[in-house]
Structures are given as C-alpha cells and as structure tokens.
Amino acid sequence: MTSIGTPILWVGFLAFVLGMLALDLGILNRRDHVVGTREALGWSAMWIALALLFGAGVFVLGGRARGQEFLTAWVVEKSLSVDNLFVFVVLFGTLGIPRQLQHRVLFWGILSALILRAVMIVGGISLLERFQWLTYVLGAFLVYTGWKLWAQEEDPGAGGRRILDRVRRVLPTTDGLRGNAFLVREDGRIRATPLLLALVAIEFADVAFAVDSIPAVFAVSSDPFIVFTSNIFAILGLRALYFLLAEMVGRFVYLRPGLSAVLIYVGVKMVVVRWVKVPAAVSLLVVLGILSLAVLASWLTTGRTPRVEPGRDDDLNPPP
Fold this sequence. Notes:
disordered C terminus, 320 residues
C-alpha cells in the first residue's frame, strides 16, 4: 500500500509546523508568563481541532481506511503522551521551576522532541521495510511493555527522579535559577541552570516514552506520512495539555491500566497481522473504548479529591 504523502504534502505539513512554532514563541509567548487554565484550554482545543481537520483531509485524500488509521494513531499517541505529564510535574517540582518559566522549557523540549521523533520514525520505517520479521518483534515488545505497565507498582515519579539523577552526574550545575537562562558562566566555567537540567531530563523522558509509543503507531499504520503526522500533532499539543491537566494528573488512577490495555491490544494486532486483518474502524473503537473506560473509572473514583498544583512536589519534599 503506497503512502498518501506526496512531496507537496510533506513540504506543506513541515511548513505548517514551523509556522506554528514561530507563531507560538516568536509572537504569542515572547515573554515568560504563567499559562492559565483558560489559555491552556484554548490552545488544547485548537490543537485538537487542527488534528481533526487534518484527519478529515486524510479521509478525503486517502479514503476512509487511511482516515481511520490517522485518527487511531493520533488517539494512541495522544493518550500515551499523557503519561509524560506526571514525569514533567515531578521534574519541575524537584528542580523548583516556577510556572512562568515552565512554558519556555516545554517549548524547547518539544521542539527537540519533534526532531528526535522524526529520526526514530524514519529509522523504524526503514528497518520494517527491510526486515519484515521485526513486525513480530515489535508486537511482542508492545505486549511485554503493556504487561509491565499493568504490573508496575512503583511510584510513577521514580522514573523522573532517576532521569534527573543521571543528568546531574554529567552536567555541572548552579545552585539555583539564573533568570530564564539555560547556561551561565561562573568562576570561569560554563554551568547549567536548573532550567537546562529540566530540559535535558524531559528529552530523556521523551526518548524513553517514544520507544513505546512509536511502535504502537506502527501497529496502527505502515504509512510514513500517517505515522509522522499523527506523532507530530500529539507532541505539538502536549505542552497545552500539560498546563490544562497538570493539576489533575494525580486523579487519573486508572490511566496506566488503560494505556497498558491499549499497548497489549496493538501489540497482539501487530503479531497476528499476517493471519488476521483488523479493520481500522475496529481499532479506533477499541482504543477509544478502553481509554474512555479508564478516564470514567478514574473520575468516579477520585473526582472529589483535592487538586495538586503543577510545579509543586509536596509529596517528594514534605515540610520539616
């Protein structure tokens, strides 16, 4: 099955992404500020609307099956990216990054994440085209990852703290923030500020999550254009989603079991693809059904619990 991504579509999509990033940092967010709930809700709604509009375009250009593949891939990637949010909360809280500087860190983190995702997707597609048996390996890996996520009992923030410890061993750092600078020169040496520590740690976290999420999207579609664009739309909306959901991230107690079920499902689908062809519409309904149940169960269980302010880490640093 050939890709729907013509050279014109590729160039147009990349120009759109660069234009949106320039609009974000160069015009709308030139000054550091606290991103409020209303602003985050507006940006989140905009990115969701743009993704759905793009999906409608895929329906028109590639047909119903391709459109359903894009929507499923986008939903899978979007839902898996939510798991990043808890790590972001832990990193910002541990390093004491104030809310008005979190947008700057997330912008540069997501910009570099786009480049890393593009490299991983291109490499993954090349390998799958050359070695088709890797499809079964990736499927088995997704099933194992889903089972491991289901059985995980450790504190979800432990991964973020481990990443931060490793980064600190490599980068000489200052004892506190230096405005909004990532690097400063002190005592004749260039030192990283906590902002750069947070940025590097977020990059490590994104690579770790991409190892799970990108194979999951490959299980949904083999079209490079669909795999890439669905990933990019999910990543571009992640920053707004963080500011919208960071206060409530602790309430999604059944999100991880839901995500593990999604990973197991797409992994099994990838393993049996040679013998069983699952329609794209069925995959979309299954993924949406699993995630809807996880969110509903979480809300019914924790809907009245107090919120946790983003950027704080009271549980990690209890008062004396």
